[in-house]
Amino acid sequence: MTQGEGTAVVLRPPRNTLNERAVGWWRTQWLLLAAVPVVPLVVLGALIEPARFWLLLPAAVLAAAGTAAAVLLPLWWFRTHRWEITEDAVYVRTGFFWQEWRIAPMSRIQTVDTVRGPLEQLFRLATVTVTTASAKGAVRIAGLDHEVAADLARQLTRITRDTPGDAT
Fold this sequence. Notes:
By secondary structure, the chain is α+β, with helices and mostly antiparallel strands.
């Protein structure tokens, strides 16, 4: 991702991966999401004998689908999510079939936020959100080690402070 004077930007995959603990964080989110409909269906199936089969069958299907998603999707996401910051911009690439590249020039950054939800705290992770004036919305880097996220926020703050604003 370099830019010479009078030349176009050459995109290459960003260098950095997320923290490996992000896989466990995503898996936990999937399992909790699957548990929301499964637990009431199992409880009702145990309590209402005439409807037991019709309650436990969808519970089993949802539990199997949720478990499969929890095993496979986080690994896939971990392999495809990349990020990098340079003196010029923040680069984020997500997705596999529908890849999305987000580039936030330093001169356009308005705020840098670090967020740690309860599960992120449990996994010692954080999300860095870089807000620009873009109609597309903020650039998010989720699944970072919490110390890396804090360092990244400090570094982005320093770089954006030292970068002249974009007049366009």
